């Protein structure tokens, strides 16, 4: 090849690389959103990304931001890849983000030790390290509204109630279909402990990450073992594939339960046969809330959103809204406590600790009945809130239960042991130095 | 004009077999090393932490794979897993013996990786080419399975993840959250320079020539008295050593904590692409390959919005991501068409042209 041209191209490329990034305005709050609209998990990631972006964008368009301060939103594409997630974190770190939400357990883990050093709080909403619910050990990490252990105890409790009492589960067999990774394995010790105490049997069906879309061997075993109930801990394409396989192998769908990650598209994968599939959830589905109507009006109708109109209000879209609701509340609460308008990461950490989303506050935000109340505190960064069961009726999710409280007595033991373990293993894990705010 | 070898006489065999026989090359490499160290003091934390440290880590892993695939001609798809062995070994060692300096453990962890690599290299005596690739693929899946299944490897951590406890060198934290990108970068840079120097001595010496002989024609090499068993296993061991050290650096000096999934098959392919694009059988090619495959997408991510925004086109992060994939993919094909021997060959041609510049007759 011609070396002159090659050299010229190289020179142009270096020149372009030198163009500076646009500077940020002073009177604004920078909120980076780690999203993944590409890669194998894009199916779950895209609606979440849309929901997260659209709610905050709506606040910008409708109210001019939060407390009169505009939010500077920037999406960073992670592709659910730890490498890119860490790169994203490094690239946003210099711009003084007030909070980061990694949206992947794999990305959350390397960021946890950095949070206290860089003074950037982490919001890992119902994923990440369950032990980070302990605010006294992890002052910079928040994982509301419930941990996976809470979720597992709620599902077992619900099943027990259906049988007519937890003790009736004795002698039954519960199958646990899970992603063979830290995320899927986390609730196993709790499940086994409950199995021992109550007297039911547990059958484990691990699904390796590379076989997520091919679960025929697991479902063959399910057919052989005939568990009375199935519980699923899946993510991305694993959920849809599991529903499809369950329908194909003729497993009774009304006995198939899942943690809170499947979306409408996953249930639709099973066709008409998926009717009766149940999952835990903690927020409403649908667009019938004033705030979501505002998103329609100010963002989607103006073409500022990437979401198609009919996806607004779907389960994972609303999950994204819930995530942004917490970010916005963290910022608003921080403004209230500090009296400052332009808050920093340290302020938002305090704000998150003082979040109080009670029904009155939700009503004021235009989200009355969207979700159960959530109160965080200095020591409790999770809330351990109740979730409800919802059922797929063939076209949409229908709420079928009242809020189910987690079995706190069982979960607490797991949590304390894990948090202590983490701090012990990481010799030199910093003691909490951040002062606690008085509950107002 | 500037790059001339005229007047530089070699008076001994040692001088003749030097790695950098030209004075200009020696000055050049000195300047590059100097610049690399200077970067620690002038670069910002994004440049160091998100660009340079990973670049060096991947370069080291590429050197490892290059020794195996480029120099010895044995195709391996287990690089990711061998990196994982180094990382897990380093984690076990540094938590079991916290009083020993972590730098020592980073170097020692490579030996664990080397042992595992040599073990999985045994089939290479019987099988070649694609068949060997499949055998190393087995290593990849088996080791990854171990990383998930054996909780002992992560000290029974509930999250199943590796985390980086605080470790210091001369009282300055180098591993753990409080270590600054600057110190991490200096440590990684020093280790990479040391190991690259070692590798260049290996491949230019007797051992390297044995590897190359095996690569070019193993039957002829055997007839000349090179024992294939020892030579191939040595290549596997040395290659895995480099990958293992790179894996330990990746987890403890770059990520600061990782899940087993970091060492998946994609990682193996990622490194293999670097080696192929950079140039098989070339150390500097490993650096070029790592730069093209790893740094180019980052540069594109910064440059593309800057190019597009003056035209009033604002694109989302996802579109940039797709564009990155397309451009990097197109560039890989482009480079492979114009120069199938990789970037290292381009570099060589460039140097040859420079030797006769500006009077190319």
Automatic annotation (TrEMBL), chain A:
Signal peptide, first to last residue: 1-25
Domain Leucine-binding protein, chain residue ranges per copy: 29-394
Superkingdom of source: Bacteria
Alphabetical UniProt keywords: Signal
Keyword Signal: yes
Keyword Signal: yes
Gene3D superfamilies documented for this protein: 3.40.50.2300
Family statement drawn from the similarity comment of this UniProt entry: Belongs to the leucine-binding protein family.
Protein name as it appears in the record: ABC transporter substrate-binding protein
Provenance organism: Microvirga arsenatis
From TrEMBL, chain B:
Origin: domain of life: Bacteria
Keyword Membrane listed: yes
Keyword terms: Cell membrane, Membrane, Transmembrane, Transmembrane helix
Pfam short name (any one): BPD_transp_2
Keyword Cell membrane on entry: yes
Entry's transmembrane regions: 27-48, 55-82, 102-122, 129-152, 185-203, 233-255, 267-284, 291-313, 325-344
Membrane topology label: Multi-pass membrane protein
The protein, known as: Branched-chain amino acid ABC transporter permease
The species this protein was found in: Microvirga arsenatis
């Amino acid at each position: 090849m011609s070396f002159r041209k090659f050299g010229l191209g190289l020179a142009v490329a270096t020149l372009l690389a030198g163009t500076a990034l646009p500077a940020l305005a002073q009177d604004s709050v920078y909120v980076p959103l780690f999203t993944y609209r590409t890669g194998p998990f894009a199916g779950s990631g895209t609606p979440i990304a849309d929901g997260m972006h659209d709610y905050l964008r709506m606040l910008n368009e409708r109210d001019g931001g939060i407390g009169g301060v505009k939010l500077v939103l920037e999406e960073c594409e992670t592709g659910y890849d730890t490498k890119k997630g860490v790169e994203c974190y490094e690239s946003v770190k210099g711009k003084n983000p007030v909070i980061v939400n990694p949206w992947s357990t794999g990305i959350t883990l390397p960021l946890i030790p950095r949070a206290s050093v860089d003074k950037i709080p982490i919001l890992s909403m119902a994923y990440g390290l369950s032990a980070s619910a302990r605010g006294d050990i992890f002052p910079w990490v928040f994982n509301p509204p419930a941990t996976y252990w809470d979720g597992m105890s709620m599902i077992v409790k619900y099943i027990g109630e259906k049988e007519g009492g937890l003790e009736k589960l004795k002698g039954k067999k519960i199958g646990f279909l899970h992603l063979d990774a830290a995320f899927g394995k986390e609730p196993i010790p709790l499940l086994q402990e409950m199995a021992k105490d109550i007297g039911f049997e547990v059958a484990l069906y691990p699904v390796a990450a590379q076989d997520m879309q091919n679960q025929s061997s697991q479902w063959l075993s399910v057919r052989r073992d005939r568990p009375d109930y199935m519980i699923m801990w899946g993510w991305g394409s694993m959920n849809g594939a599991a529903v499809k396989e369950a329908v194909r192998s003729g497993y009774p769908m009304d006995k198939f339960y899942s943690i809170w990650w499947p979306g409408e598209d996953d249930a639709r994968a099973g066709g008409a046969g998926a009717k009766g599939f149940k999952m835990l959830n903690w927020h409403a589905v649908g667009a019938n809330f004033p705030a979501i109507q505002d998103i329609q009006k100010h963002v989607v109708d103006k073409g500022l959103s990437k979401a198609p109109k009919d996806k607004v209000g779907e389960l994972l879209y609303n999950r994204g809204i819930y995530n942004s609701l917490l970010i916005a509340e963290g910022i608003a609460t921080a403004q209230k406590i500090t009296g400052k308008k332009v808050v920093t990461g340290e302020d938002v950490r305090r704000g998150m600790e003082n979040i109080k989303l009670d029904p009155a506050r939700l009503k004021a935000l235009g989200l009355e009945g969207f979700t159960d109340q959530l109160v965080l505190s200095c020591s409790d960064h999770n809330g351990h809130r109740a979730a409800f069961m919802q059922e797929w009726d063939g076209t949409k999710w229908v709420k079928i239960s009242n809020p189910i409280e987690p079995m706190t007595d069982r979960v607490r033991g797991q949590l304390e042991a894990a948090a202590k373990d983490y701090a012990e293993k990481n010799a030199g894990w910093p003691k909490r130095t951040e002062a606690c705010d008085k509950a107002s | 004009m500037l790059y001339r070898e005229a007047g530089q006489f070699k008076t001994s065999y040692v001088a003749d077999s030097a790695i950098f026989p030209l004075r200009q090359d020696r000055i050049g490499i000195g300047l590059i090393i100097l610049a690399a160290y200077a970067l620690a003091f002038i670069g910002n934390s994004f440049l160091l932490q998100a660009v340079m440290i990973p670049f060096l880590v991947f370069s080291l892993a590429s050197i490892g794979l290059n020794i195996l695939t480029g120099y010895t001609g044995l195709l391996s798809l287990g690089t990711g897993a061998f990196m994982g062995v180094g990382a897990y070994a380093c984690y076990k060692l540094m938590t079991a013996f916290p009083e020993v300096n972590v730098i020592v453990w980073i170097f020692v962890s490579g030996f664990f990786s080397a042992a595992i690599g040599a073990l999985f290299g045994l089939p290479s005596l019987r099988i070649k080419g694609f068949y060997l690739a499949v055998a190393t693929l087995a290593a990849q899946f088996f080791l990854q399975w171990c990383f998930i299944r054996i909780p002992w490897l992560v000290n029974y951590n509930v999250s199943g993840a590796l985390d980086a406890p605080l470790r210091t060198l001369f009282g300055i934290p180098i591993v753990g959250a409080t270590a600054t990108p600057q110190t991490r970068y200096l440590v990684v840079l020093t280790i990479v320079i040391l190991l690259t120097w070692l590798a260049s001595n290996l491949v230019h010496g007797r051992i390297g020539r044995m590897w190359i002989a095996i690569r070019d024609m193993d039957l002829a090499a055997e007839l000349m008295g090179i024992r294939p068993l020892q030579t191939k296993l040595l290549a596997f061991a040395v290659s895995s050593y480099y990958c293992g050290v790179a894996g330990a650096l990746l987890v403890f000096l770059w990520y600061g904590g990782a899940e087993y999934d970091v060492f998946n098959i994609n990682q193996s392919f990622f490194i293999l692409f670097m080696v192929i694009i950079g140039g098989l059988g070339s150390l500097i090619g490993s650096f070029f390959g790592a730069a093209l495959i790893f740094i180019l997408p980052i540069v594109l991510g910064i440059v593309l919005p800057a190019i597009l925004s003056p035209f009033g086109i604002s694109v989302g992060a996802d579109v940039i991501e797709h564009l990155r994939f397309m451009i990097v993919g197109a560039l890989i094909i482009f480079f492979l068409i114009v120069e199938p021997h990789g970037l290292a060959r381009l570099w060589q041609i460039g140097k040859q042209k420079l030797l006769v510049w500006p009077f190319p007759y």
